[in-house]
Amino acid sequence: MQLTQEQTKRINDFLEGIGVEYIDIRYEMVDHIASEIEEKVSDTDAFFENQRFQTVFVKYMLSKKDALQKKYEKIVKRRFWGDVKTISKDILRLSIYPKNLIILILILTLIPNLSQYNTEYTLYLLYGFSLVMFFIGTSSLSKLVKKYGNIKFVQTYISLFTGLAYIPIWINSINNNWLIYIQITALYLTFLLFKSFESKKENIENKYKYLI
Question: In this model, does residue 63 exceed pLDDT 60?
Fold first, then answer.
């Protein structure tokens, strides 16, 4: 018997209560547990029925608490690199879009010419652009986190934005012409990362909003 939305939410609430923080991981675990209950339990209404002390459902979930927490920890560890791989593929796809390539060509044409006059000024200019992209990107991500809670996939985007933000900081402590191209690469990757997130934002909202 298929579980109702209310019953599914009770599974979600239990997982949240034992520390399953990321809602996208919780979403998968809820789906797995719901399928398991549907397969094993013939009378799901009685299984979830509120009794004086504990429901059969609560006893069942408590018996699996340690196993569920360990499973969650393992998923968190491997999910980051899985998300990085997914995002990297998306960035690679976006990098060859004609519109994005035109932006890159313009940057590669204008910035080196500007650096001939003042390398330090050019580095600071690129650094400023990188900061703007970083704050726009993280602001958009933070709004999603505030609205829906912690989503591991979104947290991976935040980690990548933060990592790219450190490249300009490191470069601005050194004054070499070739470092301008590293700065340009970091700026372009930040731009593509932002575009990648924007393309997935609506899908993320639609997928996880019912769990909130």
Answer: yes
Q: Which of 187, 93, 197 is nearest to 154 (CA)?
A: 197
Those residues with Cβ within 8 angstroms of residue 125's Cβ, 6 or more apart along the chain or in another chain? 111, 114
Q: Which residue type, as a one-letter code, is found at position 23?
A: I
Query: What is the spatial distance between Cα 211 and Cα 36, in angstroms, rounded to a whole number?
Result: 19
Task: Provide the domain limits for residue 116.
Answer: 79-211
Give phi and psi for 198, each to the nearest 5. -60, -35
Q: pLDDT tens digits for 19-39?
A: 999 988 998 999 999 999 988
Q: What percent of the chain clears pLDDT 90, i.e. is strictly above it?
A: 25
| Together in a domain, 14 and 99 | no
> Are 88 and 56 members of one domain?
no
Structurally, how many domains does the chain consist of? 2
For residues 91 and 95, what is the distance between their CA atoms, to the nearest angstrom?
6
Contacts with 14 (C-beta within 8 Å, 6 or more apart), sequence order: 58, 61
3-state DSSP call for residue 91? helix
**118-169: per-residue pLDDT in tens?**
656 666 676 677 677 777 777 777 776 676 668 888 888 888 888 887 776 5
Are residues 203 and 171 both part of a single domain? yes
Q: Are 134 and 164 in contact (CB under 8 A)?
A: yes
10 with 51, same domain?
Answer: yes
